[in-house]
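Hi V.,

Quick status before I head out on leave. The structure for the redesign project is tokenized and pasted below; the design run finished overnight.
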């Protein structure tokens, strides 16, 4: 399976179009049928939703805020340039060794987040990213001068079961749902934002 979150307005944004093209090539290379790829971005327009359906892909029915479960299947999450809260929510939703071991994430570098954020901020606001760092393998996507802004800071992340088993038992005991009460730069469009009619830009 593949789940793509936060692709953006590919109808008018060249970077988002390149990211969609890369996703289609990736599905072809991995032998994943388009019908096994689900997408969601609250910013999608009606023509963009229709274009994705014409490509054979399916749209998730609601904004899950990144809290998407694996449903028992090995899953590639394609989340280029998403907000840190989306990755954190995804990890929380699948916070078991067995689930994480079946997951691959293509998205913003976790190592880069660790380097750029103060450790107390990372642990307070994005605790699941902080806790999984020592159980993560990461490989940066090769850079290309034509696509520096399209895939900059993008890595492939996976979570080998032996490394996850090396984490302390306490890491797995806390499964509190993230709330982001103190987070000042929350880069996520939340369900209530859409329900209240807020625009993606305002959110």
């Amino acid at each position: 399976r593949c789940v793509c979150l936060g692709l953006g307005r590919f109808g008018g944004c060249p970077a988002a179009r390149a990211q969609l093209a890369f996703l289609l090539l990736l599905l072809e290379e991995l032998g994943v049928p388009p019908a096994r790829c689900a997408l969601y971005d609250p910013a999608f327009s009606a023509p963009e939703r229709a274009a994705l359906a014409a490509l054979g892909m399916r749209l998730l029915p609601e904004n899950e805020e990144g809290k998407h479960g694996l449903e028992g299947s090995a899953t590639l999450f394609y989340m280029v340039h998403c907000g840190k809260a989306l990755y954190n929510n995804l990890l929380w939703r699948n916070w078991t060794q067995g689930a994480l071991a079946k997951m691959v994430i293509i998205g913003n570098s976790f190592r880069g987040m660790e380097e750029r954020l103060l450790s107390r901020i990372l642990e307070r606001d994005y605790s699941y990213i902080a806790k999984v760092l020592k159980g993560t393998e990461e490989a940066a996507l090769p850079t290309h001068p034509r696509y520096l802004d399209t895939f900059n800071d993008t890595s492939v992340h996976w979570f080998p079961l032996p490394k996850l088993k090396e984490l302390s038992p306490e890491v797995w005991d806390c499964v509190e749902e993230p709330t982001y009460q103190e987070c000042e730069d929350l880069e996520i469009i939340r369900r209530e934002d859409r329900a209240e009619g807020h625009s993606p830009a305002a959110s």
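Above is the designed sequence. The radius of gyration is 17 Å.

G. will cover questions while I'm gone.

Best,
W.
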